[in-house]
Amino acid sequence: MKKLVISSGAGISAESGISTFRDAGGLWEKYPVMEVASHDGFLKNPALIHKFYNERRKQLVTCKPNFAHIGLHQLEERFDVRVITQNIDDLHERAGSKNVLHLHGELMKVRSLKHEDRVYTLTSDNLETSVDTRDEYGDPVRPHIVFFQEDVPNFTKATELAKEADIFVVIGTSLNVYPAASLLYYVKPGTPVYYIDPRPAPIPEGTAVHVLPMKATEGVQWLIDNLKE
């Protein structure tokens, strides 16, 4: 079974109603990015960051996976599908995808400030955290998010998946977010690469990419119709 590796960005969840960060009207126009999504911002004003991610969770639980998420799960019948996502939502998992690697963390999780390996999943009945929230050991918690100024711990795993890909697909990303955008350079020469986005970014020099200028739902339908086992 061929290994189909997907690299997804905010565009795959936009059709589910989740605000993107970088597009016009996106979250970065409404919130100073370094105040709500950076290591320094968390040290400076953790209460604001807790509030920001509480709002993101409240939005997320009202959203549902769209056909782009569902279609990738359907492709598991024909391919060994691995999803590398920049997104912090859980829509891939809710659509049924079994192998999802989050590069930038997970919105529905928090972790201990003292022990990073203590990670806790929130529920729709328990979405809010604050500077006063404590885990079962009495430790304060923070969003399980990779802030700006922090390392991306899952990036090495992502590069290994990119190297193993028989087919590599990029969906809904500006190709401006690093290190995620550099995954293209880890794909073996000769591997078919597809880029799905309604407003595709310029392709890096030296990469052979089939550009599909369409929405994520349309692009995933194209994959279902055209990819060969």
Strand order of the largest sheet: 3-2-1-7-8-9
* Measured distance between first and last alpha carbons: 7 Å
Q: How many DSSP-defined strands?
A: 9
In round numbers, the mean pLDDT is 92
* Structural class by helix and strand composition: alpha/beta
**H/E element order:** EHHHHHHEHEEEEHEEEH
Outline: globular
**C-alpha-based Rg, rounded:** 18 Å
Q: Can you put this structure into words, describing what you see?
A:
The chain is an alpha/beta fold. It is 29% helix and 19% strand. It is built from 9 helices and 9 strands. The chain has helices at 11-14, 27-30, 33-36, 39-44, 46-60, 67-74, 91-94, 155-164, 216-226; strands spanning 3-8, 80-85, 100-102, 105-112, 119-121, 141-145, 167-171, 193-196, 210-212. The protein has a 6-stranded parallel beta sheet with strand order 3-2-1-7-8-9, sandwiched between helices. The chain has a 3-stranded antiparallel beta sheet with strand order 5-4-6, with helices on one face. α7 (91-94) links the parallel β2 and β3 (100-102). The radius of gyration is 18 Å and the shape is globular.
